[in-house]
Design goal:
The complex is a heterodimer of chains A (161) and B (341). Chain A has 161 residues and is mostly helical. Chain A folds into two domains: 2-119, NADH-ubiquinone/plastoquinone oxidoreductase chain 6, subunit NuoJ (Four Helix Bundle (Hemerythrin (Met), subunit A)), CATH 1.20.120; 120-161. Chain A has helices at residues 2-28, 32-52, 56-81, 89-111, 122-130, 134-160. The radius of gyration of chain A is 20 Å and the shape is globular. With 341 residues, chain B is mainly α. Helix content of chain B is 68%, strand content 0%. In chain B, helix 1 packs across helix 2 (18-24). The longest helix of chain B has 32 residues, at 149-180. The chains are: A mainly alpha (161), B mainly alpha (341). At the A-B interface, helix 2 and helix 3 of A face helix 6, helix 7 and helix 8 of B.
Chain lengths: 161, 341
């Protein structure tokens, strides 16, 4: 038990250090490609936290969607356009303000929320989605279908011409 | 503690603890290295046979030149890796190492048998899939870091292709997981003792196999490297051990996907050969390995018989064919669940 606590503490400390350092490097790295890479590390660190909190499904989806797919897409976009993005001098101040406000908001919101992990299988999650949260699922599906139609329309625009 | 006790403890740790044995020996690193040597030799030999050539022959002529690849490996290891002045050094050096590592890690999580597995988790399939999505990041980084137009074009091609195959890969895998009602690879294999996944959902199996060929740049999808068009694509500037790692990474990924195909669709370690357990607890896993090897041989045979697709054709295959097939495989799984229960 004691050993397990030490290992957990060590993993948490390492993941926290990696996440904080990578987050700082995302905004301070001169190359956008490096920023994207550090963003992947931030995402991986967050996935570790989620797994430690007892949400392995969310952790693995975080890894595949926000680290694997999203960062590949960001890197692809950056290297494809190859145009250096000019950052306005005032953008840093705005980003700092936004970060402070977001932190304050999150701290306020999480004061009243307790995240006790519940052991729910994906079958139960599916039942909840098509039962209790049916309306939210329909809205989300419609939004995704709309995005898909937009993507198909954009892709076919070249062929139509 | 006596020396003999230390040795027996070490042997027990290395060979009988699945958490250590699986990542290091089977299906992990040692198997991968041995397989790399064999499969590249076989690929060259098959291609040569089809083209009426001999292929590798001079190193161990009597054994068909099988040690040629070992000689090549040694050459790569001791060759000086040339790092051009204009490259981004960190990305150039770290890229191949991280690419190989991200291709290898999913192999360490695959089970050898039902009892002997490195990762016991209800979500082992999801974990393997999540880790498989990380490798393309480094493919793009090495292309960018090489500061060479051929490398960059190769990386761009890889990026385009990744976007067209990742969704079908997830959907076809989840389609078979739906049929068996589990995301645990061991459970899925155990349920295939009666009926293999390929028979329950052949559409998902076909989609997954095609995705495996695309994602590992097998012919006719060897588009990012395309030697006759863009030298070696993202790997153009590489030499020595760094090139060896890059070349090995795609074969390792192919091995992982072939193993996954054997586990999800070909019954895994079924029919189980129980007497093999007397040799070693992981030995019945040899059945999975043989099935995966057959898939790999099929994949490398395509090199000799197919011409290369253009990048737009490959993307069209991804979005028009594979995406639709993967959606169909989900519907097929739902129908199977509805009919069979």
């Amino acid at each position: 038990m004691f050993q397990a606590n030490i290992v957990e503490g060590l993993i948490f400390t390492l993941a926290a250090a990696l996440t904080i350092a990578s987050a700082a490097l995302v905004v301070s790295a001169k190359s956008l490609v490096y920023s994207a890479f550090f963003l992947a590390l931030v995402g991986a660190g967050n996935a570790v936290f989620m797994a430690m909190l007892g949400f392995p499904v969310i952790s693995l989806f975080q890894l595949s969607v926000y680290v694997g797919a999203a960062v590949t897409f960001i890197l692809f976009s950056i290297t494809m356009f190859r145009k250096p993005v000019r950052i306005e001098p005032t953008a840093g101040i705005l980003a700092l303000d936004a970060a402070v406000l977001a932190t304050a908001g999150l701290l306020y919101a999480f004061q009243s929320v307790t995240g006790t992990p519940v052991s729910v299988g994906f079958k139960e999650i599916s039942s909840l989605l098509i039962g209790k949260y049916r309306f939210a699922l329909i809205i989300a599906s419609l939004a995704l279908v709309t995005t898909l139609i937009e993507a198909i329309t954009l892709a076919m625009r070249g062929e139509m011409k | 503690m006596q020396v003999s006790e230390i040795i027996s403890w070490l042997i027990n740790l290395l060979f009988y603890k699945p958490e250590v044995f699986c990542p290091i020996f089977y299906p992990g690193l040692v198997t991968i290295l041995a397989l790399l040597i064999f499969i590249i030799w076989l690929e060259r030999k098959i291609a040569a046979k089809v083209q009426l050539r001999y292929g590798p022959l001079y190193v161990t002529r009597k054994a068909g030149g099988i040690l040629q690849l070992l000689a090549d490996l040694l050459r790569y290891m001791f060759q000086e890796p040339i790092i051009p002045k204009t490259v981004d050094k960190i990305a150039f050096i770290a890229g191949p190492v991280l690419l190989f590592a991200t291709a290898y890690v999913p192999a360490a999580l695959l089970p050898a048998t039902a009892e002997f597995t490195g990762l016991r988790s209800e979500l082992s399939l999801l974990a393997v899939l999540a880790l498989l999505t990380l490798a393309p990041i480094f493919d793009i980084i090495i292309g960018w870091g090489s500061n060479n137009k051929f490398s960059l074009i190769g990386s761009m091609r890889e990026g385009y292709i990744v976007m067209s195959y990742e969704i079908p890969m997830f959907l076809s895998t989840l389609a078979i997981a739906m049929v068996y009602g589990s995301l645990n690879i061991v459970e899925i294999v155990e349920m295939q003792s009666r009926c293999w996944g390929i028979l329950l959902n052949p559409i998902a199996a076909a989609t997954f196999l095609l995705v495996a060929l695309i994602s590992t740049a097998r012919f006719p999808f060897e588009i990012a490297e395309a030697e006759t068009e863009i030298v070696m694509g993202p790997y153009t500037e590489y030499s020595g051990i760094l090139y060896g790692l890059l070349m090995g990474a795609s074969y390792v990924k192919f091995y992982v996907l072939s193993m996954l195909f054997a586990l999800l669709f070909l019954g895994g370690w079924h029919p189980s050969i129980t007497w093999l357990e007397k040799i070693h607890p992981a030995a019945p896993g040899l059945v999975v390995f043989i099935k995966a090897l057959i898939i790999m041989v099929f994949g490398i045979f395509l090199r000799a018989v197919y011409p290369r697709f253009r990048v737009d054709q490959a993307i069209r295959v991804g979005w028009h064919l594979l995406f639709m097939l993967s959606m169909l495989s989900i519907a097929y799984s739902l129908a199977v669940i509805w009919l069979v229960g």
